[in-house]
Task: inverse folding
């Protein structure tokens, strides 16, 4: 993976962009557990403004399942890619999900591994299973070795390495594949893509947008093929809020059921 120069001054977001955003570690800070993440104040309003300014060409592309993303982003209902591309909901509300053959025995093996190594957390997702080791970082190498051995004769499945998490998913699923599918459809079709992410699971997304003439933006340190970088999620949220204010200054979000 090439190292790129750190560029922490992004050009203003323009109205011809197709905007793709990761969630954990990108829009929101990573929490000790997936269910402990919080949505920062003002984020929903910013995303509403940007969706309006971009004529709907805004999608969240995440490792989380669609149902979790909808709950976190309520009342927004955005185009989404979940579980690293295993699930995808298009702008016209059509949902697709890739099949994950031979996953049930893998789920059982991952659960058994977590029982042997204290501090590991198993997260079962539609079409995938994740093993978090944030609470036991010393167990990470042993867990990874065990999963690689488990998948050695299962070419239809792949191991994805994120921040303190190992995930088994269908080999054909990726964030890059999901972004390319969005770019073939309205309202993303014909726009210049920009994808923001924070870890190794986002690298194929960076490659996809940059191959299409767009820009990948890496959040935080570490090697990346992304062409630009921001230091942390707070810096991204600030840039998105300033972009929303410039592109949609008169936008008034519709009232929600709670208002």
Result:
């Amino acid at each position: 993976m090439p190292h790129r120069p750190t560029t922490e001054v992004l050009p203003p977001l323009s109205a011809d962009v197709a905007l793709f955003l990761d969630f954990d570690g990108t829009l929101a800070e990573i929490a000790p557990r997936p269910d402990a993440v919080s949505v920062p104040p003002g984020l929903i309003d910013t995303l509403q403004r940007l969706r309006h300014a971009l004529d709907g060409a805004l999608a969240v592309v995440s490792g989380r399942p669609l149902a979790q993303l909808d709950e976190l982003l309520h009342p927004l209902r955005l185009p989404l890619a979940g579980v690293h591309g295993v699930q995808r909901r298009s702008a016209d509300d059509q949902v697709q999900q890739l099949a994950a053959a031979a996953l049930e025995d893998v789920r059982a093996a991952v659960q058994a591994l977590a029982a042997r190594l204290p501090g590991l957390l198993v997260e079962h997702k539609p079409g995938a299973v994740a093993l978090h080791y944030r609470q036991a970082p010393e167990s990470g190498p042993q867990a990874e070795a065990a999963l690689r051995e488990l998948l050695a004769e299962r070419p239809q499945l792949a191991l994805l390495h994120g921040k303190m998490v190992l995930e088994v998913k269908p080999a054909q699923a990726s964030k890059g594949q999901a972004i390319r599918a969005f770019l073939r459809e309205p309202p993303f079709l014909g726009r210049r893509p920009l994808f923001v992410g924070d870890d190794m699971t986002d690298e194929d997304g960076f490659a996809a947008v940059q191959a299409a003439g767009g820009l990948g933006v890496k959040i935080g340190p570490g090697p990346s093929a992304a062409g630009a970088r921001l230091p942390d999620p707070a810096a991204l949220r600030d840039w998105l809020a300033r972009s929303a204010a410039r592109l949609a200054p008169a936008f008034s979000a519709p009232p929600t059921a709670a208002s």
The domain at 104-170 is CATH 3.90.1070.10 (Hypothetical Protein Ta0175; Chain: A, domain 2). Residues 128 and 169 are 5 Å apart (CA to CA). The chain has seven helices and twelve strands.
